[in-house]
Amino acid sequence: MSDLPKPEESLSNLDHEPPQTGWLDTPIDIRKGMYCYAANPKSQKYVGFPHAREWNPVEDDWKLPENWQEILHQGFKERLDRFRSVKIFMDTCVRCGACADKCHFFIGTGDPKNMPVLRAELLRSVYRNDFTLLGKILGKLNGARPMTENVLKEWWYYLFQCSECRRCSVFCPYGIDTAEITIFGRELLNLLGLNIDWIATPVANCYRTGNHLGIQPHAFKDMLDFFVDDIEEFVGVRVEPQYNKKGADILFITPSGDVFADPGTYTAMGYMLLFHYLKERYGFDITWSTYASEGGNFGFFTSHETMKRLNSKMYAEAKRLGVKWILGGECGHMWRVIHQYMDTMNGPTDFMETPVNPITGTVFENAKSTKMVHIMEFLADLIKHDKLELNPKRNDHLKVTFHDSCNPARGMGLLDEPRYVINNVCNNFYEMPANTIREQTFCCGSGSGLNAGEDMELRLMGSLPRANAVKYVHEKYGVNMLSCVCAIDRAALPAMTEYWTPEVDVTGVCELVANALVIPGEHDRPTDLRGEDLPGWEEPEREEKDAE
Amino acid sequence: MNVKYMFSLVAVLLLILLAYAGAEAAGMKTFFGIFIPYLAVAVFLIGFIWKVVGWARSPVPFRIPTTCGQQKSLPWMKYSYTDCPYTKTGVVLRMILEVTLFRSLFRNIKFEQHGDRLVYRWEKWLWVAALLFHYAFLVTVIRHLRFFAEPTPFFVQWLEGLDGFMQIGLPGLFLSGVVLAAAAIYLLLRRMLMSEMRYISLPSDYFPLFLIIAIAVSGIMMRYFTKVDVVAVKELTLGLVTFGPTIPEGVGGLFYVHMFLVSVLLIYFPFSKLMHLGGVFMSPTRNLPNNSRAVRHVNPWNYPVKVHTYEEYEDEFREKMIEAGLPVEKGA
Amino acid sequence: MGLEGLLEKHHRTIVNKWFDSVVRTYPADTARFLKKQKDPFANPVGRTTFNGVEGMYDQLRGEMDDEAIVSFLDPIIRIRAVQGFTPSKAAGFVFSLKSIIRETIGGQLREKEDLEGLMALEARIDRLGLLAVDIFMGCREKIYQLKANEIRNRVFSAFHRAGLVADTPEDGPETNKTIE
Prior knowledge:
- By secondary structure, chain B is mainly alpha-helical.
- In chain B, 58% of the residues lie in helices and 4% in strands.
- Chain C contains eight helices and no strands.
- Chain C is mainly alpha-helical.
- Chains in contact: A-B, A-C, B-C.
């Protein structure tokens, strides 16, 4: 038996260890399924982005402007002077390795350059070369390297394999935030026209029409009217949403994803039903806007300036309509922008009032400057004051778990409000393991504009840690519904569950709320908002008919 | 053989040789005993301040704390006072926990599946080693104040008592020096032996570790083995701080090696990752309160941008809006 | 000792070697993490793989129940199907078990019936390998279906069919203007 090949040798043509070169020297290999298509120049031109052109990531020639190195160096320098965060994050990392295994993309892909520390080192290596004394003297010995086309491609490839979820930042002893580094790096890439289409085209669409698909105002209304019909069928009441109403008390803004893609549409129906209930019972006066019809902000994934340009619509519309404050729907990065950026960028907002819940009288002190309240804060307040008639039994066929979305969890701290709401509208709630929820939550793998179709492999790998925890509660408790408060989650998680845990469905929290809400004048409601039969709630008449 | 740590190791060995040969053979005691220490302290102070001022000169345009707990929102909802601070006091407490206890490193918990059961344990070795390393370093630095003040300050004596409580040997063994060397060796081995640590480590990660190990070992050798003439050493060090430097007799080459390596560490400090000592206090994801919706944060370079106004929007879509029954500002 | 006894006795060695052979298909720096990190939530790839090879090994030694063994094989292949492995690389690890077993206990097999038993075991391993290819193809098909659905959801939505989506015009208000 001694002449038998060794296990690995017998498959040596199949399996091999990759070359053991240091990361500074390993050439970039741009793989299919791992990247998104290059931005459509039409979209880039529409919003005035520089160097818009046709180019293809897998081709050798990226058609870079001649002085691209100079542009990058200058851009880097200017931003170091503008952002203390990046300056400190460039200097203080000690490479302790605490973050190395915290990234869902590293866990899923096994690619060492997806360790947060190395993702940042891709930029740091150039920073050392261009801006530090030791880097200039010692060069590669100090981990410095000049900017070359290969390095640039590496930046592009790996900065679009980061979903800016901040999980690594939780574990870093210096709070180094890879999201901040990715935001910074993408802003630099944008100077060279190196964006991806699933970010650039939604940006152009949001800028023009107010939502990321480019839906025009009348069609946006048509879509919501379509929900009105559905609600009438499933609930038996006709809701009357208000649009662009001047003098309304409150403006409602939610990501437009909830208006056109399942299962977000059911969340949108949930909002409408909730507002109808509050109007009927308490005379609640809230309006939707077609101009500011996008809460999500893909500008955030482009540059600080683009983020500000898109976000400006919220306050502009609030001012035009003369509302008292703004209520925000379920969304992830939208809330990061609202919570940590909006007031600074586009405030101050003296034309509005400190938000007060007109039904409970609660003053939202925590939002007194930005004047925007999260719908989970609003709902938790209503439930606490017993202002909603709820029948959680209507959700008894569901075993629910909750996926904390990265941005509300780590960029805001919205952890217990959704749990409080869910526990009041569902009787079966189960938490996933502690190191996969709350501030340690795993990303859906598709955040920060990566939820395209062509990078499905990347998304599925990125979602593996999340799916793995979902699978655990599915197997242990029979969980069949994954709830979340983020529109990108609702768009991205269904693909994840379909691949990894087909038995589990995805829902927004407001859909659960609306299903449990007892609406004045409702009929027997044998179905939920999806039109699916609710076990145990079949129409008695129908049963009788069936019996005949 | 790994070029990254070999380079650093050789560099430290050369530095040792340089100091020993310089002080012993070439008789450059004034150079190594007076000139280099002054230079090192000057470079350290100026470099450190220059770096921190450099950071401080870049503004913090947005309030971007990483929230690691429940936010303060509704009055009845319990929020995380230090992990998601809303007040300045909360931020100060968060920073104290971060700086003194390495709170973030403390967060690692790991699950293990034992059959049907999940058991979680706390991933502590990096945290323990880092904590021991830094505290041993701090105690060692404070202990050395004995050489720079006459009479020796009471807290130094008190600390020495605590540090030498085991009362082993003569002169009494200080725990801090041994712990410092041991923890530094652990951190070094971790970098050399764990493949992903080896992958991410740079020569500039190994260099300070070798340097600190060499400093600790040379200190230990002087104190316990070659039994350096402490009175003479103190004469030299006091001379330095009182700006009346002298080179006393009877101080061996090993002392000059020790002092030279410390000087190199001080010079290297401001240009390296060791600046995390300053950076940890200034990290915007840690040292800001999570109250950005309640108190407006001002960005000093906030500039106006081109936006798509409602008027432009209505101009483009007015007809369709009217047709759909949406209210418009003009026309209708 | 007969075949079954040896397979039982060297259970741990064989499973570990088999696991190693899978892990070695990843970059060296990742392989260590996959092996060392025991937390199933922090390291789903490594733990799924380990639990899978262990479960499959137990199945292979007895009467191989297709449904049971697929429940161990599927999660491993499902992961490898998205990680950019070719079909042969993704499924090839199954076959390394043959040489691992021969290398570990082959020299100790004396009886004819044991050698026959070994051949039967290897035939089961071959069948498992083919199952792996089937699962791999199923996963790839699912991935392409998901990709197609993403495009359909976005482009052929109800709005588009109704002609309600505005395509971005060639000349926007800010054509050729650069943002500083």
